[in-house]
Structures are given as C-alpha cells and as structure tokens.
Amino acid sequence: MSEAILVTGAMGQVGKRCVEILLARGGAVVATDVSTPANAKAASQLQQLHTSDKLQVAFVDLTDREGVLDLVRRYQPGAIIHLAAIVSPVCYAMPELAHRVNVDGTRNLVAAATALKDAPLFIFASSSAVYGSCNPNTQAVINSETPTKPIECYGMDKVLGEQSVVESGLPYGILRLAGVLSPDGFGKMSDEYRALVRATPGDNRVHGIDARDVALAFANATQLPQPHRNRVFLVAGDDSYCKTQREIEDDVMAALGVGRLGPEASLPGDPDDDLGWSFTNWFDIGDAQDVLQFQQHRWDDTLAWLKSSLNPVVRIAVRGLAPLIRQGMMASIRRQRKKEQRGPYAAPWSLIGQLYGDGVLVPEQLPERQE
User: Fold this and answer.
1) Of 92, 175, 289, 324, which shows the fewest CB atoms inside 10 Å?
2) Comparing C-alpha atoms, which of 192, 194, 218, 235 is closest to residue 98?
3) Are 290 and 361 in contact (CB under 8 A)?
C-alpha cells in the first residue's frame, strides 16, 4: 500500500480544492474523474500549478469495473476520497445513468479497494438528500439520530452507496453534506437547477457550507483517528449558514448587485404536508467540527467569494440595470408559475414529478398531485 490518496470527482467544485489541500501538505494524490473537455481543462490547470510527481491524473469511468480495478490496483492508495457523483437536480434528467455512476460506480470502487492486500481508508461523500422531505413545522434539526428516508433518486442512490461502504469491511468515514456553495455551482444554473430553485419552498430551511470548507473536511478525514472511523459525520457551516431558501437566494442576488427579489419570488411550503418540502434542514453537526476541523468561513465570506468571481465590468453593468433585471425576473417567475399551473404551495416533488416523471421519485413517498 502506498501513501497516495485517490480522489474521485477530482475536477469538481470540491474535488479540485481537496486535491490542492492534499498537495500543499506534501501528499501524493491520484486525481481521477471522467474524461470530458471541461475535466481535461481543469486537470491541465492542476498540473500546471503542481509540476512535481506528487500529482497523478487518471481519467476513468467509474461504471467501467475493470478500469476501476486496474486504477486501484496500479496505485494501491492508502486512502480513497470518493466524491464523484451525478448529483441532484442534474440526475433527474438522467436517473438511469446517475444510478450507474452513483451506485454501481461506488460498488466498483469498493470492490477494487477490498481486493487490495492492505485495506485503504474509504471516505464517502453523501448528502442531506438521504433524509427526504424535511418539514420544519414538524421536524427538529437533522442530527446523528435522524433516520434516512429519501424521497427522490439522488437520496436513494446515496443511501445505497453508504450501504455498500458500510458492508464492505473497509475502514470508512461517511460525510453527509449540507448545501455546498461556490462560484462554480452558481455558474452552472442549468434548466435543472432553475427547476429545483422554483420547486423549493421559500421558507424551507437550508444549511449551507462553503465548498472550500467541504474540501478541507475531506482532506482532514484521511487522517481520521481510529476511534472516529466507521461512522457518519454531518458536515455543514457554522450557524451563520442557517438560512431559509429565500434568504439564501436574496443574499446572493444582493451580493451580485441585482438586489433582493423578496418573498413573492418563492412559494411557501405547506405546513400540514410532510412531503411538501425539500430535502434540506438545519444540521446539528455534533462533534464533526471537533474531529474534522473544517469550518474556516462564515456566510459573509462565501458571499464575498461569489461577488469576487463576477467580472468587474459585468458587475458594474448589473448594478446599473438592477431594477430592470429584478422586474424581468419577477415577470418570468409569474409566467413560469402560470405555465406549470402552480397552486398556493411550492409542492416541490409534485413539480419535479411533473417535469421529469414519477420515476425520479421513491415510489412509497410519491406525493399527491396538487390540483
């Protein structure tokens, strides 16, 4: 077994920052991801910044069982950080492919790891999606005792991925993440992301975390002491990140110079419907901060990071046109609600089922259609 750390999803918003932390500490890293033009560009940038032989880049499709086995056998890592996934809401447009990557890919990686003579420490990225719909009127904060009850395909994929890791016999750590925030994420506002934003109740609780802190949590998890292995950690920002969906959207819009849209930009959740909410809530992270030492930023720091990522010329233009932009956005929101025949409540999973089909939802959790 080598001292190298294998990082999957290494070109993503968390992965690339995790790789940089590990390399800055003098560690050897095998950075792997699926081969795409965007990932090739990110890999090239990493290699330009880190020219030593401490960094190895390997493009492997996790659904290729033999390819994964060969990768793990070749480098024999001492630890594996498994970040790669097709996440929500992108997975709603391709649930079958997402399942192959998220579940079968994880099983392939676990199988390859268990085949090594010396078992590596397996650090798995999970999600608050495993908890399903979280009604803040009937549910307290998420803690280590909260049962998993996924309502859609991504949450179910993560439950199955966790199960593969736990049952493997490998030493492990599972990190269930709150809402990860970075300029990368806000720069990828696809149709799927916009649909999820429309679907989420404005008064839904959301616990965020800066992507840089998530990367640090995973890097530090590779040094988990024995007493803290083989367990789940809840990873979220400090209390400044405990917001509602509407507050997060408005704070981001204000930071980018557009200004706040206000409560009318979101529909509320139905307080009497436990399935009428998104899979987010505030976290009680227990001893995760004491063990992993990852909280380095506050909400204002993340907002400043998002603001600094905006081109200065664009920022000036946005500020000058802000009233017109807000007016246009609100008009678009009203038109979209009318087109989708939305009712008085957000009913997120009814909308997601309407847009992508009930196949993306867990059958026993299917909500009734909102009339």
Assistant:
1) 324
2) 192
3) no
Q: How far apart are CA 79 and CA 87, in angstroms?
A: 23
What are the domain boundaries of the chain? 5-188+205-240
- List the pLDDT tens digit at each of the 371 positions of the chain: 568 999 999 999 999 999 999 999 999 999 999 999 999 999 999 998 888 889 999 999 999 999 999 999 999 999 999 999 999 999 999 999 999 999 999 999 999 999 999 999 999 999 999 999 999 999 999 999 999 999 999 999 999 999 999 999 999 999 999 999 999 877 666 788 889 999 999 999 999 999 999 999 999 999 999 999 999 999 999 999 999 999 999 999 999 999 999 999 999 999 999 999 999 999 999 999 999 999 999 999 999 999 999 999 998 999 999 999 999 999 999 999 999 999 999 999 999 999 999 899 997 665 554 44
Overall pTM surpassing 0.85 (yes/no): yes
When computed from its CA atoms, the radius of gyration of the chain, rounded to whole angstroms, is: 21
DSSP per position, 216-283? HHHHHHTT--GGG-SEEEEE---GGGEEEHHHHHHHHHHHTTS----GGGSPPP-TT-TTSS-S---B
CATH of domain 5-188+205-240: 3.40.50.720
- Determine the Cα–Cα distance for residues 180 and 42; give it in Å rounded to an integer: 19
